[in-house]
Amino acid sequence: ELVLTQSPGTLSLSPGERATLSCRASQTFSSSFLTWYQQKPGQAPRLLIYGTSTRATGIPDRFSGSGSGTDFTLTISRLEPEDFALYFCQHHDMSSWTFGQGTKVEIK
Amino acid sequence: QVTLKESGPVLVKPTETLTLTCTVSGFSLSDDRLSVSWIRQPPGKALEWLAHIFSNDKKYYNTSLNSRLTISKDTSKSQVVLTMTNMDPVDTATYYCARSNVAAAGIYFFDNWGQGTLVTVSS
Questions:
Q1: B48 to chain A: nearest residue by CA?
Q2: Can you give the three-state secondary structure of B54-119, one letter per residue?
Q3: What is the band of B100 on the pLDDT scale with cuts at 50, 70, 90?
Q4: Which of A55, A59, A74, A107 has fewest C-beta within 10 Å?
């Protein structure tokens, strides 16, 4: 069973800074199957990036995704106040879907 | 406009069966590019995928909960139903339904989510 481990658990940064979030898989898989979501308190998750690097409709270009094999990264180039939230990576293989435990990006 | 809305009990007792309904609008459950999952999130914890149903009625379940879950759909009513048997306090969570879309062969993602419904398991 595939496990996704996100790090760090919490990232304390200031607006304008760069955020780098990691998602590491217990086994290698195609980059097509890695997705990122953002979740704010009291809200449902929101799709950010799919296929490792394709931004969803309406997602600003300060969000970018990269990676391959077992190591994937979500980068927020310059944090805006609305970007402080919880971020999840997710893998699918058409018969199961797995989420990482999340990285919280908080205001320093 | 695509919407998904979860409905069901807010409180269930241990050992009872939970039945949740996801009513969708703005798309059809018969569209073969689209499918629906149920996902839950215990308070302050991570998301956990539960079950998925495709337009052709193919179903998949989280293997750790497989024996307790049943997912079904009624295309004419635009509803997807999840049942979970033998509820326990550890099943207390917000339960979401989410629409899966496909960008290309094999590239699936949840592009629309319901608001979620908090289910508490307590006697």
A1: A99
A2: ECCCCEEECCCCHHHEEEEEEHHHCEEEEEECCCCHHHCEEEEEEEEEEEECCEEEEEEECCCEEE
A3: very high
A4: A107
